[in-house]
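[[Local backbone shapes]]
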Amino acid sequence: MTAAITDVPDNEPLLETRALGFYRQDEPVFMSLNFRLHIGELGLIEGDNGSGKTTLMRILAGLLHVDEGELHWRGKPLQRDQCLGEMLFLGHQLGLKADLSPSENLRIALGLHGHRIQTSVTSALAEVGLSGYEDEPVRRLSAGQKKRAALAKLLLLPAALWLLDEPYANLDRTGIALVNRFLQEHLARGGAALVTTHGAVSFHGGEAQRIRMHA
């Protein structure tokens, strides 16, 4: 089991993109994207609808292949087999099996990605407001409860980089505040995060890096 986020030299980015580009049917979705994300840093991915925000997240998560440019992780060309479990992607598809309970879904995630040993499945679900729903099939939960079940992964998995695509969708004000607190705590303990959002993020640890998407 993995328990801690490993250190990165202060001057070395955790993640770096170099002239990154992606095409769909020979048309550019985005081109020449360059940014560096260090530990303790939050990056806000901004852009119009169709500018490639979700596409970028899926590339970083290894779900799409990059067409141009380079990805570097901890100062070296990114090799997926060397950073397994170090990136956690939460997108529009929450990655929950509908016929399993939140507890069962989380235990599967722990088996695949490791476990931040300070937190149990039960306590994580309680913290996201799902006490009493631990064993309910996910298909019976509301959209907001499903989102909270997925957010519990943030408390359990030891990933250094969070890739959060619209993490505030389907959440009430209490849920939004919960996500902001999770982000703050993650950055404080040496993690980093990339977030696409329409303005709900509240970051108190310094100025967030703004990454503008354009073709």
Observations:
- The mean pLDDT is 87.
- The first helix runs from residue 53 to 60.
